[in-house]
Specification:
The protein is of the alpha/beta class. It has a single domain, classed as HAD superfamily/HAD-like (Rossmann fold), CATH 3.40.50. Helix 1 runs parallel beside helix 7 and helix 5 packs across helix 6. The two termini are about 15 Å apart. Strands 3-2-1-4-5-6 form a 6-stranded parallel beta sheet, sandwiched between helices. Helix 1 links the parallel strand 1 and strand 2.
Length: about 180
């Protein structure tokens, strides 16, 4: 029997906040429906939250890490779940064609969390809106759930990655949390 989910590793753009291509302006940060409520349920259940975000706009020279951090601060402010709802945040600033330790689908961040916090990998769950988020879950040996937020065809991305039906896909974050934690 699998252990209960003890940690969520969450994508940012298209999962927690509305996807804005190459987001660099904190004024454009918008929390998606059901996110705050879903995170409240997870926190009340004692689940630790982590953020894992690819931000290739930094590597492409479109914006800086300071702008990424400003958008992250705005997201935390809008979530209104306390000053530090995430135990750790991991941002991979590299372009897709550059070597990277943390760029999804790298499983390194999940493995570090498991080791640091003493979680079995199957007690972690990735939630994201892209095939790379769930490919990360597959490579790391964690659970996963997809968010169909309208930006991309997640089912097609999963099929292309050989992960059809490996992970459930939800229209709302709070529904994903309910399923993942049940």
């Amino acid at each position: 029997m699998k252990p209960r989910v003890q940690a969520l590793i969450l994508d940012r753009d298209g999962t927690l906040i509305a996807h804005v291509p190459y987001l660099a302006d904190p004024a454009q940060v918008r929390i998606l429906p059901g996110v705050r409520e879903g995170l409240q349920v997870a926190i009340a259940a004692g689940v630790k939250l982590f953020l894992h975000s690819n931000q290739s706009g930094v590597g492409r020279g479109f914006f800086t890490m300071a702008e990424v951090e400003a958008c992250n601060r705005r997201m935390v402010e809008l979530l209104d779940l306390g000053a530090a709802p995430f135990a750790r945040m991991c941002v991979a600033p590299e372009r897709p064609d550059e070597p990277s330790l943390y760029r999804k689908p790298s499983p390194v961040f999940a493995r570090e969390i498991a080791a640091e916090f003493g979680f079995p990998l199957d007690a972690l769950c990735y939630i994201g809106d892209r095939g790379s988020d769930l490919a990360t879950a597959a490579r790391a040996g964690t659970r996963g759930a997809g968010m169909a937020t309208g930006g991309d065809d997640l089912a097609a991305e999963l099929a292309a990655a050989g992960l059809s039906r490996a992970y459930p896909i939800f229209d709302r974050f709070d529904a994903a949390i309910s399923a993942v934690l049940s």
